[in-house]
Amino acid sequence: MFMITWLFVLHSTSSEDTALELDHNLLPNSKHFSTFDESSSVVKDQNSESSFANRAILLVDNENVEANYKTKQIPETNYNPKCSSMHAKVVLKVFMYDLPSEFHFGLLDWKPEGKSVWPDIKTRIPHYPGGLNLQHSIEYWLTLDILLSELPESASNSRTAIRVHNSSEADIIFVPFFSSLSYNRYSKMNKVLQDKLVKYLTAHEEWKKSGGRDHLILAHHPNSMLDARKKLWPATFILSDFGRYPPNIANVEKDVIAPYKHVIRSYVNDSSSFDSRSTLLYFQGAINRKDGGHARQQLYSLLKDEKGVHFSFGSAQRDGIRKATEGMQSSKFCLNIAGDTPSSNRLFDAIVSHCVPVIISDEIELPYEDVLDYTKFCIFVRTRDALKKKFLINFIRSIGRDEWTRMWSKLKEIENFFEFQFPSKEGDAVQMIWQVVARKVPFIRLKINRSRRFLRSLHGKDMGLKSIL
Ligand SMILES: *[C@@H]1O[C@H](CO)[C@@H](O)[C@H](O)[C@H]1NC(C)=O
Ligand SMILES: *[C@@H]1O[C@H](CO)[C@@H](O)[C@H](O)[C@H]1NC(C)=O
Ligand SMILES: *[C@@H]1O[C@H](CO)[C@@H](O)[C@H](O)[C@H]1NC(C)=O
């Protein structure tokens, strides 16, 4: 069984290039859902039927093979970021577990007073540590937003998600574990907490009722849920990318890609222009990267002597952040090269600096891509093309003032989608992420109903835990 699965993965990886090429212009409109169900799930024709680089489910189980169920994804709406009515109408009912505080605000040195496991956000909001920890702080903003939804003041805000206390009435069951923070700050403790979380969840009726399929779990830092994910995989994860996740545990159909919180401050009142931004292409980042890292090294050799290119290796600490801010705000284009994972906060730093991102990361997944056309404000180049002599620099030089200015304006229009804040505001990252979750809900219901078909005849009512890998 494992053999089959992994052979399948390897095979599909080797055919990825062609698949990407074929599908390039069709995506994302041609996305299909594939099923993922512990008992079944087959992808038959890898090239034409699976989506995004074959990141569909590759779990093969000979004993119980069902037909591959496919359905078209929710059609792309004419999405207009300025159209407020759309934001206001989608409402997601969220049941949030009252997890012990050691899983969330306790990690921020907050101690419960009285019975509540939650801080009283009217009086004091525990502070999330700054610096690079912040880039994965999605857990914190989403949880605060759910807590806020219970206060009467929040009714005046436009909001997408509200907390409900009866789980039968909820669209989604939210698990408020600050896994990224726990990994960043207390990596040993993180493993213990993951085990505890699995025990906690699987003992609860909500999990048993759906086998976890309607649960939403945060794992934005790629290493934050390395253990628990093998058991909690039926849930929807909030991730930064799929780089370290096997496709049967996480994939673009089931899971939600959330942006990093940018570490560079937004460029307010940007009145720069094509001509005033003196650097053509900017990159600052670490060089000692694993996996995707050799591309960085090669690009460095290709670009370092080109006119207008700033390419340097440096860390994003302190002075690094100040320099990067200046650098990105005075550059026309900002390079995004895959590092040890396909995504990085650099993309979001570039967006809020209105520096047109040039993305060289074949496996990257982008937040809200079902409603947002990134080609309007980003340049995508395949790695193998970028590594051809002169290709990248000629490509970038071919983009003239008008085209660049259109992309720059678009960046200013959409940057709010990547802003995390409290209280959250209309159309910001918090609301956008809830909307992505809301769009997954019909699919989650379908999965749950399908998974119930054979319950009566075989295993009894309890959909417990089944570990994979
Ligand atoms: C929760 O909601 C369900 C469905 O609406 C209802 O049948 C049930 O009585 C509710 N439970 C409580 C404790 O209110
Ligand atoms: C941006 O411009 C607005 C209006 O012109 C002004 O009120 C605000 O202070 C400016 N902000 C910054 C950071 O310069
Ligand atoms: C799943 O079943 C419920 C009844 O339990 C029904 O209300 C719902 O519409 C079904 N969902 C789908 C997607 O068929």
UniProtKB/TrEMBL annotation:
Residues 1-15 form the signal peptide. Pfam families: Exostosin_GT47. One of its GO terms (molecular function) is glycosyltransferase activity. Residues 91-394 form the Exostosin GT47 domain. Keywords: Glycosyltransferase, Golgi apparatus, Signal, Signal-anchor, Transferase, Transmembrane. It is a single-pass type II membrane protein. One of its GO terms (cellular component) is Golgi membrane. InterPro entries: Exostosin (IPR004263), Exostosin_GT47 (IPR040911). It is found in: Golgi apparatus membrane. PANTHER family: EXOSTOSIN FAMILY PROTEIN (PTHR11062:SF99), EXOSTOSIN HEPARAN SULFATE GLYCOSYLTRANSFERASE -RELATED (PTHR11062). Belongs to the glycosyltransferase 47 family. This is Exostosin GT47 domain-containing protein. It comes from Lupinus luteus (European yellow lupine).
